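Researcher: Last one for today. Full complex below.
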Amino acid sequence: MNIPFLTSIVIFLPLAGAFLTMLARTENAIKWTALGVTLVTFGLSIGLYLGFDPAVSTAVTPQLANISSSWFPGQFDIKYFVGIDGLNILLIMLTTLLGPIVVLSSWTYIGKNLKPYYTLLLILQTGVTGVFASFDMFLFYIFFELTLIPMYFIIGIWGGENRIYAALKFVLYTLVGSLLMLVALIFLGYAAGDAVNAGVFTTDWYTLVSYNMPVEMQGWLFLMFALAFAIKVPLFPFHTWLPDAHVQAPTGGSVILAGVLLKMGTYGLVKFCLPFFPNAASDYAMTFAVLAVIGIIYGALVSRAQTDAKKLVAYSSVSHLGFVVLGIFAFNTEALQGAMIQMVNHGISTGALFLILGMLYERRHTRDMADYGGIATSVPVLTFFMVLSVLASAGLPGLNGFVGEFLILIGSFKSETLASPVLIALATTGVILAAVYLLYMVYRMFWGTLDNEENANMKDLNKRELALLVPLAVLMIVLGMMPGPFLAKSEPAVQHLLEVIETKKAIGEAGVTAATEVVLPAQISE
Amino acid sequence: MDLSQAYASLPGDLASTISLLVVALAGLGLVVFDAFNNRHAATPWIAGLALLAGFVFEVMHISGPEELVYYNMMRAGGAASFVNALVLGSGVLTVILSVPYLKKIGHNVGEVYAMILFATVGMLVLGSANNLVTVFVGLETMSICLYILTGFVRSGSGSSESAFKYFLLGAFSTGFFLYGIALLYGATGTMEISAMRAAVEGGGSVLFWAGVALLLVGFLFKVSAAPFHMWTPDVYQGAPTTITGFMSTASKAAAFAALILILHVALPAERWSGVLAIFAVITMVLGNVIALSQSNIKRMLAYSSIAHAGYVLVGLASGSTAGYSGALFYLMVYTIMNIGAFGVVALLEWDNKEGSEQTLDSLAGIGHKKPILGWTMAVFMFSLAGFPPLAGFLGKWAVFAPAIDAGLVWLAVIGVLTSAVSAYYYLRVLVVFFMKPEDAQSGAHETTFAIPRSSAAVLILCVVLLFVFGVSTSMIDLTQGFFDSGITAVTLP
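Model: Here's the assembly. Have a good evening.
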């Protein structure tokens, strides 16, 4: 099956759906339109998955690419350029999968102002998919910022008590980072344009990668890019917006936030920070690894101290994404592969945790763990999914969380850039701590005596709720049991990326101060 | 001199400036018409159609060649048409928004429309001037009409107060401006902007640079750049809201256009780039930071308009043609966003008849009750804050990118940081509109008012334009073209 413009369709179909929901008249029509559009989008994205062949992904252009260079006037080489490569395919699949799940999870949760909610949700999906699929930095930036607007409203209108504060904090944190990145991006575009693009300003990813920036210029540009992504991840100490946003957001918002929005940060580090500024990235690798490990341990300890279940899961994201950042700055295939798969795993398992907590909240209107207790007997099916997600999130072998964390840990253990077994040993404690705080949550909420009347009368999962948890549960097991096919999708691209980074780093270290074009390794340039 | 010979070019000149003639004649006609038919329903129609006719004429000439008319006193076509179209378009939208607004506040008098037309004439002269005398004539025609427009609601004390303030300070700045022109004439022996450059080639005398400094003060006052912005909040708050929208957009566009021409054609960039950069920083920081603490929405928008003058100055400070064309593009985008934002404020204000006393908090929950106002305002706020894919982002791109290219990275960094600050107060409007629960006090307001179709159409038009110019870059291409070819480009050595 070969559908033209498939990548663009997958990106923009939700946006078209947003117009449809705007026109829909009844509440049911709105919901079913949103569900239908997200389901079709997911169906089409399977076409991307099947159409993508990792073996040839190392060619100079991505697969299934749609390019239009007539967008900007002549003095700017800015293109509409989207496509699929090994780095983004899994994240795009995760985004399109979470689309219908989020719509279903909001089915009864969102009681007022349905129309703007589903419209914004669909716009958000276009933004996130676009971020992952862009091969032009300008386009990337537009999608990156586009995600802020719907998320701001979703938290601010449909969120909890403290939603206004959380929404503003979320937007302002992200905005400061991304605006500084914009300045760095414009600077980079002119510098690369002068050196390798005949003096024409450029934001084309391949052109920017081929530009070999003088080492002394890389430092501050790298930091400005990395700051934007570190805030998004969020890396300690830029994480303070996350608990607020997560706790206040409605369930659907939390799932998207944890599932895919945070990955825009880690994806940005992999795709832009490392290949654009390889020397600076390896110079600062230790700093970022230390911050990542602090985040792993700090996130875990703070999680343990929470009484609010949603806040506990929110802080666990700080811890889990610390692993991803650690893997990214280890600069070897195992660790980077682990980081790639961990991004997906975290989206699945934390997404499931937020979904289940949302279901409990809908029943009991409280997130305080003390209000629950012993509910395993009243809602056994829900408990099953909860325990599964918790174990997956804690990294139990056989479930998906284990694969990513294990690869990251062995990769960074033998990393030449980091070369600090003590640091990695500290990071490893994060895995144990994860089990502590997550099982503690299960213990407080699900085990024990069922002494509350309201808890005893809770209804178990209905069909809709079952329908949205089953796919995630299946993926947890499949990804845990046989991660091979999924890892294979990204492996050639990851290796390619690391080779390019090595080559560029060597050129930079050799002290070639004049900007020269990188010679890509022979097997990857064609 | 034989007069028949002297005006041989007159028919051609008149044909090139039809929009100016139409608007001026319509203004004169309206004064007479209104004297015999007070508050006639046709008055706004005449004004609106005259402005629309002028707008269409100018749009048709934007891509045409730029030429000098009236013995090099003015320019027509090309860049001049672009600015004129901007001014006229802003005028058309202002007239449409003003009709229901003025009716509601009980001041739907014919003079208002005549004054809008005369102010527009002044802006057209200013925007297409090619001589310091024409610049001055345009500036004064515009300013005097704006003083009157600010104060025509005689019953409200706020309106009269702000008109008086505006007049006093404006007269003062005119003095600076005129003195600057006099010094420049003394130093160069010419009033013609393009001829001035030859006199500067040698470096320019003290007299010359003193003249430039005074001229700059006059301009910075008119575009409300800090530290010459003191009048702006009071005037914008006190003036009738739709008129504020007009003042904050069209007059700024025309004044900036004249400044751009003078900077580009007459003055070598390296001498003043740093000065403008400093003014840009002061303006951006001051406007955005003070806007944070405003509780009145009109006053907040006034400070935001100061901040936006700062962004335009960033484009000018880069001293390159890309910077100037970016500034022109920014002015266009800014006009669309601000007309829309003030249009929404005008509709809301008319609802509770509080006039300039309106606080932000009294509007809690209005976004859900009046979705058209709420969501169009959301677009204007996000665009003003510079979020893609709206035109406000592309506008900021168009002024910041040339600044970075010119090595002013620090200026761009300060610019984006202040625009992150601005996001806070723009989003606060949306917080009130959508997220704050309605309190008992605001619930008392009558919110069942109908939104006139004409106003809704203007708001939706502005929203559509913001999306179109946020994605399409054809306008950046167009404004760049003015500096690549045509008179504006040719005059450069």
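Residues 312 and 327 of chain B are 5 Å apart (CA to CA). Chain B has a mean pLDDT of 86.
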